[in-house]
Every structure is written in structure tokens, then in C-alpha cells.
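Sync notes, pocket subgroup
Present: LS, DG
LS reminded everyone that the earlier model was apo-only. Rerun requested with magnesium ion included. Inputs:
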Amino acid sequence: MPETRTLLIIDDCPEDRRIYRRYLLKDPHQSYQILEADSAKDGLALFQEILCDVILLDFSLPDMTGLEILDQLKQETFEVPAPVIMLTGQGDENLAVQAMKKGAQDYLSKQRLKADVLQLAVRNVIQHAHLQSVLSQTRERQRLIIQQAELLAQTQAALMREQKLNAFKSQIITTVSYEYRTPLASILAAASTLKQHGDRLDESKHQRLLQIIEQKARQMGKLVDDLLVFYQFDLNKAQFKPQPLDLCHFFSDLIEEQREKLSSRHELIYKMTGNHKDFWGDGLLLRQIFVNLMSNAIKYSPDGGKIEFHLIGNDSQVIFSVKDQGIGIPIDDQDNLFQAFSRGSNVDTIPGTGLGLAIANACVELHGGDIALESQEGKGTKVTVTLPKRLLI
Ligand code: ATP
Ligand code: MG
């Protein structure tokens, strides 16, 4: 036999209450502790004191209608309303339907009431309430599990960001301490030569030392700039602000800028073909891509040679490439070069931090494009960037 249930009868007719009690206590499937109230006021007071599993509610009580009692019950039992079975007199069926709309679980007509009908109705609403509570507990448990999983994912993401940041910080310390020492030593040596022997040096030596200072200081400045730029990408804080760009103008200006960095052994060739109209891009990011590819082409072809820039466009894409005839990249090193701080094993004393391609790659990604590298050691390198004319977000 299942556990004893507490049932509250609110009915002003003692005879009716006696009948319900008798019917229910005869139920072979369920045992009840039965409480009685002969008015709405007493019924509500009892309900507040004792936790009931089900209420049998007479529709017309002297001090309140059944609908008013339902409203009161709702106010008092916010989350777990006790199931209510409304008992109606003849002709009250319409009101009973209203009661159901207000939250009553069932209604029975007093006139046709039989023991088995009442027993079954009460057992049903108890079972229904039980299932409801199991369901809401399950939902609550599910909600908690989802909440915990979300919290866990957030914590893990924060932890990973933290780990990445820490790795990045220690990489910065290593890089800065290593990459700064060499140019700094050159600057200090040049400066101290100028200070001690400046008056005895001829003009060309003088100029050479000043040039070293300027060049090494620029190198150190670039390192800091690149670290800051890359740091923004690493924190996902880099902004992508596309606007219409006239690529012919844009690249022509940049090429003229780069021309100044070429040595007399280099020959710069550029070609712009196809349709590159209606391109939307972020000028600052595009500049990062171009300058990094171009500076690599110049830097890694110390013996000079041709440096070719080619821009081609079609209806939906623009493709540009930078090609040199420099030292190339050993095949085994080629896979990781878009990762920050990775460098080819053949760079020898050519200065660099290993950030340029990582920055270029991040800028290409923000444009929704693609970057690819082909290289042959000792022969040269070609980097090709493909960008959609307009990124559809
Ligand atoms: P920086 O941060 O100053 O650009 P970096 O040039 O070393 O330093 P990346 O531009 O990211 O860094 O290039 C990574 C590596 O890829 C380089 O160190 C070099 O080994 C190789 N590399 C890139 N471009 C070329 C190229 N055109 N020719 C030969 N090697 C290249
Ligand atoms: Mg570089």
C-alpha cells in the first residue's frame, strides 16, 4: 500500500463530508488522513497549517465561491499547488469548467458521485501531482546540470586563456631579452665609439655608425609594435572595420613606401590585373599583411633578385602574391611558420621575431580569406593571399 496521503475536505454540508470520508477510507489502493473544514475560512487556515496532498472543494460555500478559494490557494502555494477536485451541484458544470481553467485538476458532480468514481479521481490527481513534481525536479536537475556544464566550460575557457596568456608572456620575455640584446649591443657600441672617438672619425664612418643606431633602434621599435599588434589578436581584441578600398591606389602607395627599403641588388616588379573593383577591406589590417610579406621578401633575399607583387581580381575575390628569389624555407619548417615565434632553421643572422606571418595570417582570417606559402630552399618563396571581395557576416 502506498504512503498515507493527507486530504482536506472543504464543504459546509456535514452529510456530504461524511459520504466522501466513508468512500475514501474504503479505497483498497490508497490510505488517507482526512481533515475537514465547513467554511472557506477554516479550510484555508487548515491548508496553511498542514501540507495537503489533495483538496476536495465544494463549489458553493457560505463565505466564498470555489473560484475565489482557488485564487487564494494559488496565492498561497506559489510553486507546488495542492491539486484540487471541485465538487459541484447539479447545473454547475459551466462553473466547474471555469474552475478547471483557474487550476482545479478535476471536477465531480455531487449527484452522481459513487465511491469508486471518487476514489479513482482522487488517486488520479495525486498521481498526476506526483508526476508533475518528478518532472519539475528532473527539469530543475537538468537546468542545474546545464548551468554547471556552462560554468565549467567558462572556467576552462578562462583557464585556457590564462595559460595562453602566460605562455605568451614568457615567450615575450624570452624574445625580448634575446632579440633586444643584439641590436641594443650594436647601438651601445656605435654610440660609445661616437662618444669616445667621434672627433677623429671620418664622415663616412660617422654616418655608418649613426645608420647602425637608427636601423637597430627601428628594429627594436618594430619588435615592440609587432608584439602589441599580435597581443591584440591573441586576446581577440583586434578590430575588423571593412570599408570600400581602391586596391590599385592602396597597393601603389604601399609599394612606393617599400621601394625605399630595397637595396640596389633588388628589382621590384608589380602587376595589377583583372577586376579588383568593389572590394571591401580593412586598410590597417591589409597594410599589416602587405608590409609583413614584403619585408620578408626583402629581408630573406639578402643577395637581391626580383621581388614580384601581383594583384589579380575576379567577380568575387582578389588574390595577391609576393614572390622573391631569396633563401627559401626548408620543407620541414614550412608547416609552423604561421604560428607566432616560429622561424625557419636557415635564417642564420637575419633578424626577426617570428611574428610577421602570424600577424598576416590573423589579418587574413578577419577578412575571411586564405593565405598560402610555397617555398624552395635556396630558390625563393611565394606567399599568396586570397580574400573575398566582401565578407558576408
Ligand atoms: P618578424 O616578426 O620580424 O616578421 P620573422 O620575419 O622571422 O620576424 P615571420 O615574418 O613570421 O617572422 O616569418 C617567419 C619565418 O618564416 C621567418 O623567420 C623565416 O624563417 C620564414 N620566412 C618568411 N618569409 C620568408 C621568405 N620570403 N623567404 C624565406 N623565409 C621566409
Ligand atoms: Mg617577417
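DG: The CA atoms of residues 290 and 360 lie 8 Å apart.
LS: The longest strand covers residues 266-274.
Action: DG to write up.
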